[in-house]
Amino acid sequence: MMTTMEKLTILTDAAKYDVACTSSGVGRAAKPGTMGNSMACGICHSFSADGRCISLLKVLQSNACSYDCSYCVNRRTNDTPRATFTPRELADLTMAFYRRNYIEGLFLSSGVTGSADTTMELMIRTLSILREEYRFGGYIHAKAIPGADEKLVTRLGRLADRMSVNLELPSCQSLQKLAPDKSRADVLRPMSQIAQGIAQTKNELTLYRHTPQFVPAGQSTQMIVGASPETDWQILSLTSALYRKYALKRVFFSAYMPVVADSRLPALTTRPPLLREHRLYQADWLLRFYGFTADEILSERHPNFHPLIDPKCNWAINHPEFFPVEVNRADYEALLRVPGIGVTSARRILQARRSGSLAVEGLRRLGVVMKRAQYFLTVGGRMPARVSLNRAQLISALSSEKGMALPETARQLSFLDTTEEDYVKCLTGQI
To answer: CA 118, 13, 264 angle in degrees (round to 5)?
Structure first.
C-alpha cells in the first residue's frame, strides 16, 4: 500500500515538466467561514531544484496514463512508478500545505486515467472538496483533459480560477506522429468552449453582479519546442493565431527535455533548446504588448530567430527605413519599435515631453536603455551614437554586454552595407 508521501513524491516529480503555471490574475478577498484568498497582482514565487519558477503545489491527480505520447515521461510504455491520488487525499494535502504557508494555491493536471471523462471527474471531485467542503478561496489552476465531455469542462471552469488545455506540439503532423492518441480537434474544442464561457460570463456580469464566475483568470496553453521540426516562424504564427481566436492570457513555451528514448525524438544527449525558448518568450512579449505581428518578427524567408540578438533588435536592423526615430516627436507606437524603449519608458517619454524637449540624459533617467537605443533614435535631431554602423557592426554591438568599442575614424556605412565575410569577421572579433 503506497503512502500519501510516496504518492506526492511521484506525482509532483511527474508534474515538473509542465510550465503553464503563472501568477493569479484574479482577486478574491477572504470571507468569514472561508480559508484563504487570491491576490490579483500575482502570487509570490520560489524556485524548484530544477530551476523552474513555481508558486503553487504543482501536482498530477495521476500519472497512470493510458496514452502513449512519445515525449512524455508518463506515457504508458515507459517503465516508471505509477500513483494516483484519491480526491480526498489530494484535497487534504493541499489544505495541510496551505495552512503551513508552504503554498498559495494549487496547479492540478493529470495523466489520462482510463478515459478523459473519468480523469476529469476525479479532478472535479478534488476541487469540489476544496471549494465546497473546505471553503478554500485560494488560487487554483486546472488543466482540462482534451476529449472530455463539455459538461465536465464547464463544471471544472466553475471551480478553477484559470484553466489550460495543452496544445503540446505546433502542428497536426507532429501531434499525429508523436502523440497518436490525441487529436488537434480534441484540444481546440475545449479551448473554444472555455473562451466562449469566459466571454459569456463577462456579458452576464454587466447585467447581474452575482453571476457565477467561469475561469475568471482566463486560459493558457503550452507548446513543446524542439521535439518536432517546426520553425520559429511557424510556432510564432500559431501563437499569434491562438491569441486572436481564443483570447488566451498566455502561451507558454517549454524547451524539450529528453527524458525517454524514442527514434521519433532527438537523442537523449541533445541539450534542451533554452535559448530558443527564451527568444520565443521575447517575441511573445512583442506580440502582446508592442503591437508587432508574427510576420513582422519572422517570415518564411527568415524563419528562425537570430542567435545573438533579441527579436526586437533583429527587426530594427532589418528595417533601416523606419529609423532613426525622433523621441521628441514620435508617437507611442513608433517609440515602442525602438530597441531599448519599453512600454513603461515609452509612456514616461510621452508624459515628460509635455514639460519640454528631452535630452539624452533625460532618456536614461526615464528608463531608456541607451546601449541599444542610441543607434536607432535622434534627440533634437542628433543621434546619440557618434557613428553609423553597418549591419555586422550593429549585431556585434547589440550582442555584446558592454557594447563595441569603436575608433573615432569608424566608417560611415548604412545598416545593410556589409558582406557575409564582414559578418563572419564581426562574429569572430576581427572587426
So the answer is: 80
Query: Would you say the C-alpha torsion 200, 203, 207, 211 has a positive or negative sign?
Result: positive
pLDDT, one tens digit per residue, over 18-27 is 766 655 556 6
CATH number for 4-286 (one of 3.30.930.10, 3.30.70.2390, 1.10.1040.10, 3.20.20.70): it is: 3.20.20.70
Under 8 Å CB-to-CB from 100, ≥6 apart: which residues?
A: none
Residue range(s) in the chain whose domain bears CATH number 3.20.20.70: 4-286
In 3D space, the residue among 125, 157, 129, 122 whose CA is nearest the CA of residue 142 turns out to be 157
pLDDT in tens, 155-177: 999 999 999 999 999 999 999 99
pTM of the model: 0.84
For residue 71, how many other CB atoms are within 10 A of its CB? 25
CA-based nearest residue to 83, from 57, 67, 61: 61
216 cis-preceded (ω within 30 degrees of 0): no
As a whole number of angstroms, the distance between CA 373 and CA 334 comes to: 13
Q: Cα(63)–Cα(424) distance, rounded to whole angstroms?
A: 49
